[in-house]
Design brief:
single chain, mainly beta, 12-stranded antiparallel barrel
Length: 184
């Protein structure tokens, strides 16, 4: 699990709340490796990522903050209790969504930014039918380290490609969390 450079995230069509399936593999992804669910009616965000077959909890994402204006979401491996890092909101999304990926030591690993200001304004103020896409760049904004490309579909569907040594677990989990929180 998480040894590919291409992943698919699909939001489930018939569900109460935000539920997702994550698959990995080249050219259209193969078997699901994770199921994800955002717990509803919580004062603080709480996401669980489980094995799709056994329902065993594999990762959790939580925050200590009630308001998520500048929230930080900690990503933890449930099997080892290891902190993989955090996902931090950089801008609230009135113009363009921007998030930071932080390593377990607190160092900035990458910046996740919506594809373009023009497209983000079009999505927010004209039509929500334009699929959302993100670039994951280095901590200083340079060099594309991963891409998250949305597809036109009934529910959200993303293809994620990791281009370098960035931890794919953090990129994939961030894609799900950002989608659910931003209600893309």
């Amino acid at each position: 699990m998480f040894d590919a450079d291409r992943y698919e995230v699909r939001q489930k069509a018939l569900s109460v709340g935000n539920e997702y399936t994550v698959s990995e593999g080249p050219d259209g992804a193969t078997e699901p490796i994770l199921s994800a669910k955002q717990k509803l009616l919580r004062a603080k965000e709480d996401f669980r990522f489980t094995d799709p077959e056994s329902d065993e909890s594999l990762f959790r994402v939580t925050t200590d903050q009630i308001l998520d204006l500048k929230a930080s979401y900690q990503v933890v491996d449930e099997q080892t209790d290891e902190v993989l890092g955090a996902i931090e909101r950089e801008s609230y999304g009135f113009l363009r969504q921007e998030w930071g990926l932080v390593g377990p030591d607190g160092d900035r690993l990458a910046t996740v930014t919506e594809d373009s200001l023009a497209k983000s304004l079009f999505r927010r103020h004209v039509t929500g039918l334009l699929p959302v896409a993100f670039e994951v760049r280095g901590p200083d904004g340079g060099g594309v380290r991963a891409t998250v490309d949305g597809s036109l579909s009934i529910r959200d569907h993303y293809t994620i490609e990791v281009h370098d040594d960035l931890d794919p677990r953090l990129v994939v989990i961030a894609s799900v969390v950002v989608d659910a929180i931003e209600a893309n």
